[in-house]
Amino acid sequence: MRIGIDIGGTHTDGVLIDGTRLVAAAKTPTNHDNLLESISQVLHSILATQDPTSVQTLNLSTTLSTNAIVTGKIDAVGMLVVGGPGIAPETYRIGNHFHLISGSLDHLGTPTSELDEEELEEAINSCCDQGVTCFAVASKFSPRNPVFEDRMLEQLRERADFVSSGHLISGQLNFGRRIHTAYYNSAVNRTFRSFSTALSASLKGFALQAEVNILKADGGTMPLTRALETPVQSIFSGPAASVMGILATTPADTDLLMLDIGGTTSDIALFASGQPLLEREGIAIDGHHTLVRAIRVESIGIGGDSLISIDANGVQTGPQRLGPCMATGGSAPTLMDALNVLDLADFGSVQRSREGMEELASKHDLSPHQLAQDAVDAALSAISGKIKALIAQVNAKPVYTIQEILEDREIAPKKIIVIGGPASVFKKLLQDRLNMEVIIPPLHGVANAIGAALTRSTSHLSLSANTARRQLSVPMLGIFRTIPRDFNLDAAIEEAQSLLAADLKQAGILIPPDEMQITQADSFNMVEGSYTSGKNIRVVAQVQPAVVAQLDASAAEISITGQP
Amino acid sequence: MLKAQSSLGVIFFPAYDWAISPTHPEREERLLYTQDQFREEGLFDIDGISEYRPLFATDQDIMRAHFCFPSVDHICTESHRISAGGAIQAARLVLEEETKRAFALVRPPGHHAMKVVHGNRGFCNINIEAVMIEWIREHYGRKRIAIVDTDCHHGDGTQDVYWHDPDVLFISIHQDGRTLYPGSGFPHENGGPRALGRTINIPLPPRTSDEGYLYALENIVLPILADFKPDLVINSAGQDNHYSDPITNMQFSAQGYARLNELLKPDIAVLEGGYSIKGALPYVNLGICLAMAGCDYSAVREPDYNAAALREDPDTMDYIKQMSGHLRDVYFHPERGDFEKQGEYFIRERKVFYDTDGILEKQREELKDCEHCRGLRIIHTSTDRILPCLGVELPIDCCPACEREGYEVFNKKNDAFLVAQMLDQKNKQYRYRPKR
Fold first, then answer.
1. Which of A90, B79, B402, B426 satisfies CB 3.0 to 4.6 Å to B376 for a cystine?
2. Is B380 tagged catalytic?
């Protein structure tokens, strides 16, 4: 059996799944001061009549790291940065202990000026003097050659509790993102570690012996032991859990959209042939771009509690939220109240919705019905505008080969899956507005926890080889070694697959080779003067997000403990 | 986070699956390290700099700019259509005001492709700037356009396409044609009889560096542009003036290129040549993008950059200063060239060699000396490979007499031409004569 828990901003949801059957589900308000308490509560409910020892896997999606970062409750990090020519590294300054150290590599990883050991020593001393014990190191082009990052790591070994090294977190090129990703990884390390310790103790209390995995923003999981090395990968896993929930509850093999309607905002995701689309480089947090792989989720300021207002441009819905809708005791009319007034919903006190709408309408010489209609229209326009823009953006994404231009298929979703509290209310409205089939999957109230329970591990690596220099590098695994001059693309693909498989195996994950995707495989002739000096090979291998099972839809619906 | 002062759209299309031949400078690897540099610098994370994919140039798009013989498909592969489509995308972004400026970082290049095309010259099949400019005029009406060709080689193709067009000012700054392919681009080449002073050639001595190049820009190009007042400025942005370029002899740097674009402020830049793919392109392209977006580029430099060692010698500077006054006059007081005339037609007869494809073209051009319009143009062309072909061009302001005469020539039965193509700018008709 598998357990999935999603700690969200408002609720913590949990499910217990046996094969393809949902056995139990629970919901409880999230206690942000004590996440373990929320976890315990849902575990208590879902394990009430079950044998905990038969649970093999527990997958947890938590807002812990995200909240620590956005609320600034993070540790001081000594950020040591080696830049060099190009965009000024000062641009990426972050935290209170940001140090620039001289030295530079070019795009092939060749050192073009040496690391300044004195500056390094000074920077480390300055951090240590101020009691900093967590560090992060990043150099420009370190995925091509980690020599400077490795040297900084060596100098820190005796003096730091925890060090994040840029090239080990991501093999992708992007210096600014590397700095910020390494920084946040160190900044949340302590918070995540203490949570992990407490979690393990708490699970023992439940007699659970399951392997524990942490959800990542790309919709996959990582073993808890890996999460302790790269806690930053756990940011923004909540929306990803919902997306995986869709995959687990709805057969999806075509292009489709997901809309998760919440109180303040709604999330939109796009699937191409059933596969959720990822952010091109990584997700942003607290205004900083990172290299954390993530499912692309667009947020829009429209939800059940979106405030209705009237200005010079007419009736507006959202993006502000003042409180709940009037139907549940709020002080100003919201989208949910408009739906009540139009008899599209029957939520809370419809009478209070009517009164609120009448009061606002009368101030502007409108009928309450007209105001409600305009408010719903405004919300639908905003949603459909966002969806159209997203599809256009995805279809306009840059490509780099003639073949892709000629063969690229346009993504054109004809179906939209709607989840979240007011999903059913929106069914017909969205159907008419978007001219798409609207599907409301069963158990959408805990789709996120189902997604968490049923998703599997994901991983990726990028390999590059330069046969002229006889170098092979797989930065994220810390592999930089010599290859024969006749190393070629086929050998590189094979190597990437076996290294990825070996790395996953080391983490206790067995994934058949045919489920590993090669997303990039290029080999370029390198020419010096007029002769071919070698090949420049680039391969990216990944295990894409997928669910281990589809939930049996024919099974009887079960009640969700704690659901109002 | 960095923010662009003027928004910039970059159409980055490295064509990773296309080469002229495996070891040709124009090969798959050419923009690989530029992309690495862009990614590592996070260029597209800068607020206001975005990346776009190219459009695809259709037969009509190409036939507005060129006479392609025997057919468009014979001249163009998909790679050329996409490269030209990249330039069109750049123009679309700017003219639709989606971005303030745009840079088409595309390959293969185009500035050696002339009005008539039989094959590849100087790595170019079709002139991607010309296809773009004709696309602009088709969709947005008549415009005054200035093309500043900053490739190290003379932009002889672009010069030829706009030789008779007074709406287009073509300025080429390049290494002196006595020392480099294609061996042309001298000051006396200053436009056809109806477009005198609309072609300006600035040949610079070999080993000119940043100071000399920028002196020519500030003292020749900018004053001319200030007077011409174009609606659009286009930089035909070759990067082979760089000191590390393997096939030229100049000493320009990434800093120089960035400053050039800061001063020139092109609305659109289109990549042309530049084959120092590791030592120059990553830095030059980064510098150009940052300068076009109005971002700080002061720290962009090559690892082996040494300004003092690269500086031109004083004689070179004296020479450039001396010639700049004379070159401004090419625009302000153009001298009339020796135009041969037969009856009411100006005649040009010449041979054009297509170095890449080894084709020799024989061409006769007749331009009517018309009082009412720029004049009908008739081109007879043949090569060592195909029978004579006919091109007929009616200018945008074509008078009824020229229009009538043009169509008579085009439709004439029983002529000796293998193929005939009509390029009618006035009525926007671009077509081949149906085979009989």
1. B402
2. no
